[in-house]
C-alpha cells in the first residue's frame, strides 16, 4: 500500500500487513494499538476515544509502508501524530482525529508540568521527546490546557504510555472493526 488509507478496510489492512513491526518498543505496533484500545475501553472512554487509542500511531505505520527512511528517534520526528490525524479526520471526523493530533503535545505538556512523569516514560518515548520539541514553554502549556481536546489528549497519552506490556492476552483487531465502521458511517 503506497496510497494513504481512506477507509476502515484499508486501515485494518495496514495493521494486518505491518502490525507485527516494532517501533523502538518491546511490543509490536498491533499489540500496542490493541493494548491502548483495551485500556480505553476499560476506562469507559467514548467510542471515538477507543478508536483514537487504537489508531493513534497509524502515522508511524503509514511512514513505514510508504518507504520513509527509518529515523533516529533522538534527532528526527516523523510527525506521526499529524499524519495520523490527517488520515483519520476524513474517515472518522474530529472526535477521533483530535486526540491523535494532540497526543505528542500531551506528552510534552505532562513532562513540563509534572517532571516526575518523564521518569515513567519508556526509553523510546524519552528519546522521541527530544525530536518532538522537548518541554513546552509556559505560553504553550496554557494554550494546550485551553484547547477543547485537552482532556481526551491527556487521557489518550495515559493509554499510550501504559500500552507497552509484553505477553498480554488481547482482543483481536477484528473485535474493533464494527466500532470503527459505525464511527465512519456516522461521519459520512
Structure write-up:
- The protein has 188 residues and is mainly α.
- It is built from ten helices and no strands.
- It has one domain (8-187): Hypothetical protein af1432 (Orthogonal Bundle).
- It is 64% helix and 0% strand.
- α3 (47-55) packs across α6.
- It starts with 7 loop residues before the first helix and ends with a helix.
Short account of what is shown:
The protein has helices at 8-18, 29-42, 47-55, 58-65, 80-92, 94-113, 123-131, 138-146, 150-162, 174-187.
Return Rg in Å.
15 Å
Q: Flag low-confidence runs.
A: 69-76
Order of helices and strands: HHHHHHHHHH
Secondary structure tally: strands: 0
Counted by DSSP, the helix tally is 10
Name the average pLDDT.
Answer: 90
What is the name of the CATH topology? Answer: Hypothetical protein af1432
The structure class reads mainly alpha
Major sheet: size, sense and barrel closure? none
Per the principal axes of the C-alpha atoms, what is the gross shape?
globular
CATH superfamily: Hypothetical protein af1432
Write down the domain tally. 1
The share of residues in extended strands comes to under 5%
Helix content: 55-70%
Amino acid at each position: 500500500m503506497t496510497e494513504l488509507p481512506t477507509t476502515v478496510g484499508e486501515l485494518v489492512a495496514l495493521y494486518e500487513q505491518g502490525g507485527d513491526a516494532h517501533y523502538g518498543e518491546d511490543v509490536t505496533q498491533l499489540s500496542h494499538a490493541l493494548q491502548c484500545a483495551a485500556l480505553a475501553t476499560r476506562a469507559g472512554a467514548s467510542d471515538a476515544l477507543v478508536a483514537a487509542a487504537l489508531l493513534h500511531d497509524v502515522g508511524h505505520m503509514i511512514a513505514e509502508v510508504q518507504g520513509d527512511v527509518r529515523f533516529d528517534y533522538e534527532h528526527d520526528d516523523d510527525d506521526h501524530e499529524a499524519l495520523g490525524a490527517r488520515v483519520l479526520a476524513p474517515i472518522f471526523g474530529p472526535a477521533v482525529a483530535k486526540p491523535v493530533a494532540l497526543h505528542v503535545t500531551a506528552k510534552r505538556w505532562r513532562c513540563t508540568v509534572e517532571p516526575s512523569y518523564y521518569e515513567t516514560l519508556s526509553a523510546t518515548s524519552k528519546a522521541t521527546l527530544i525530536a518532538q520539541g522537548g518541554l513546552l514553554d509556559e505560553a504553550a502549556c496554557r494554550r494546550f490546557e485551553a484547547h477543547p481536546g485537552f482532556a481526551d489528549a491527556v487521557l489518550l497519552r495515559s493509554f499510550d504510555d501504559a500500552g507497552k506490556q509484553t505477553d498480554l492476552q488481547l482482543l483481536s483487531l477484528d473485535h474493533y472493526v464494527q466500532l470503527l465502521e459505525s464511527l465512519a458511517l456516522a461521519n459520512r
